[in-house]
Amino acid sequence: MLKVEKISKYYGTFKAVDQLSFTVKPGEIFGLLGINGAGKTTTFRMLMGLLDPDEGNITLNNKKIDYDITDQIGFLTEERSLLTKLTVKEQCLYYGTLKGMNKNDILSKMHELLEKFGISEYENKKIKELSKGNQQKVQFITAIMNNPKLLILDEPFSGLDPFNVELFKKEIIELSKKGSMIIFSSHRMEHVELFCKKLVILMKGKSVIEGYLKDIKEKYRKKNIFVKGTIPVDQIKDQEGVICVDKIGEEYQIKIEDSTYVSKIFKEISKSEDITKFVVEEPSLNEIFIEKVGESFEE
């Protein structure tokens, strides 16, 4: 288990991370989110042992994270961290050696993953000759080739088309099933909702939302009603508990303060004869994020 216990980090007098705590169990995919400057990068660096917290403790399977156990960690950075003049094979050998792997194991794992991600023919090509998407595949491969116990993924789908996003998703889920503890960070909230049952949202180094996603959505009282058909928009807008009514394509989205107003809205809308859809949904994670942080997390 990864345990982060009340960690803080200062840069001079600036407090980049403030009393942050969370746990990640084997097989869990945990969301660590926040706008730029929220403290995510500093947290990642502490999790990898590159920085020591000024306060608090971080342990992986009850051991302090230092150079004795960093071989058990994989990290995919948001920025490209590849050595572009090396070939794909040289890159894998370099990173695998840094992780304490022997040459035969590195090459065996490399061939397995290159084939899985459909880039076996690029083994002897230089990184700089590859497309952005294929560079991202190589970066992902170097992050997971040591079968990490802790895997940190910062914007893993950057530069990928939808087909390759699915390849990455499949591999991430497979790694979690094998017991890897995965910390996932993305600007795409739909990806976070797909993967993460637990999460923390940071703002100015502090946790402003934390816990299980299901519980977070239940505590956030506002709901969305999606209706397809002809509705009396002005009358609905005037209803108590209605925040707004928006037309989205062929549907109307009615935002309400909480679920107690659903029956009144349904009674009003059911007077129309051509209603083909009336669905009440929890708010999206992006809506909750905007309200708590005051800024959209979409790119």
Description:
By secondary structure, the protein is of the alpha/beta class. The protein has 2 domains: 2-212, P-loop containing nucleotide triphosphate hydrolases (Rossmann fold, 3-Layer(aba) Sandwich); 221-281, Alpha-Beta Plaits (2-Layer Sandwich), CATH 3.30.70. Helix content is 33%, strand content 29%. The chain has a 6-stranded mixed β-sheet. Strand 9 and strand 10 (206-212) form a beta hairpin. The relative contact order is 0.14. The mean pLDDT is 91.
Low-confidence stretches: none
Q: Just name the CATH architecture of the largest domain.
A: 3-Layer(aba) Sandwich
Looking across the biggest beta sheet, what order are the strands in?
Answer: 6-7-8-3-9-10
Q: Report the C-alpha radius of gyration, rounded.
A: 23 Å
Identify the CATH homologous superfamily of the largest domain: P-loop containing nucleotide triphosphate hydrolases
- Helix/strand/pairing category: alpha/beta
The helix fraction, in percent, is 25-40%
What fold name stands as the CATH topology of the largest domain?
Rossmann fold
Per CATH, the class of the largest domain reads Alpha Beta
Q: Give a count of the beta strands, DSSP E runs of length 2 or more.
A: 14
Q: What is the count of distinct domains?
A: 2
Average pLDDT confidence is 91
Count of helical segments? 10
Strand content: 25-35%
Which H/E pattern describes the elements?
EEEHEEEHHHEHEHEEHEHEEHEH
**Shape by Cα distribution:** globular
Profile the largest sheet: 6 strands, mixed
The end-to-end span amounts to 32 Å
